Amino acid sequence: MNLHGLRLFHAIVRYGGVTRAAEELNISQPAVSSQVKKFERELNIQLFVSEGRRLVLTDAGTQLISYAERLFMLEQEVEHFVEDFRAGKKGMIRITATYLPANFLLPAWIARFKQMHEEVEVVVNTTNTRIAFDQLLRYEAEIAVYGGSGITHDGVHWDELFEDEMWFVVHPEHPYAGRKVELKDMMAEPFIMREEGSVTRDRLVSLCTTNNLPAPRIALQFNGLNETISAVKAGYGANFISSLVVKEDVREGRLARVFVQHMQLKNTLAVCTRAGEVLSPAARKLVDLMKQEASNMESN
């Protein structure tokens, strides 16, 4: 199909004749006439008949113009989409996130983003650290939002958002509630943690290894962050967790901190992308918003 010929045919019908079509397209009138005749010969279909000085569509021309109108309307829609995509007004952002940012940061951040970019679709998958980076590197997500110990990963670019503290927490009636204890005593407690692959769980195990202590006893395991906290609130075991998650519970007396001597551990919150790749315009805007929101949190 000669799309240039179809475009000229469409222009003649749209503007009501060869002369006006030539003016609108900035092409000479003889050139328009000859190229449309050539288009008819290529199709082996007569599209116009002459009635005096007027061109009138044949039945075939009437049917073809309806297809041409749909085609060029779709072309305009594609052009508008491309313009909006380049401006970050449209598109899809796939995010994979670990449990901490997915539960305690992203809902509010994405809500603010959607208020400004309603036509951008955002899909969030919540998982553990190991799977999150696998999904990022397998192109199943454009952004990974991570909360953990600041590990490095080949092929991943890190933008650190902020750091918070890692806390040991127990039920307020636990013997260690509000007390200072040694690490070996803390590690003798039963822990309620997330599944293997959780960077926080891996970090707890590493803490024992570094200090020549037996591995912690994971007495209960859940696949969700909120479930681990709820179990400790119910009166059993201890948790090792970001202060961001439990700060309010500690302040309001639903949980209590245990101060482990000589331990001041930090937790890194970061937005991660594939190294060396340029983000889509919409994703770039979302990452910029995340950085701004994180900066506001630190200043407060």
TrEMBL record:
Keywords: DNA-binding, Transcription, Transcription regulation. It comes from the Bacteria. InterPro entries: LysR_HTH_N, LysR_subst-bd, WH-like_DNA-bd_sf, WH_DNA-bd_sf. GO terms for molecular function: DNA binding. Gene3D superfamilies: Periplasmic binding protein-like II, Winged helix-like DNA-binding domain superfamily/Winged helix DNA-binding domain. It holds the Pfam family LysR_substrate. Transmembrane segments: none annotated. The keyword Transcription regulation applies. The keyword NAD does not apply. Residues 1-58 form the HTH lysR-type domain. Belongs to the LysR transcriptional regulatory family. This is DNA-binding transcriptional LysR family regulator.
